[in-house]
Amino acid sequence: MESWTIKHFSQANPEGTGQDDVPALLRRVADSIEDLGLVEVQDLVMHMEITADGYRPSLTVYYHDAED
Hints:
Blueprint: E1 7-12, H1 22-36, E2 39-51, E3 54-65
Antiparallel strand pairs: 1-3, 2-3
């Protein structure tokens, strides 16, 4: 059986005002993906945390280097 390791990171908006801004989160994650260089994104998973300040979404990005 073949196996491989996938890399990942999770990202959310800063806590407080605007923490629930999904478009801002998507832009932030897109910038982070571009900063990684040549990668292939395998999956994006959105999570929703409920805090004292309201909803706080986050995204986990699963990827691997394009050269692998």
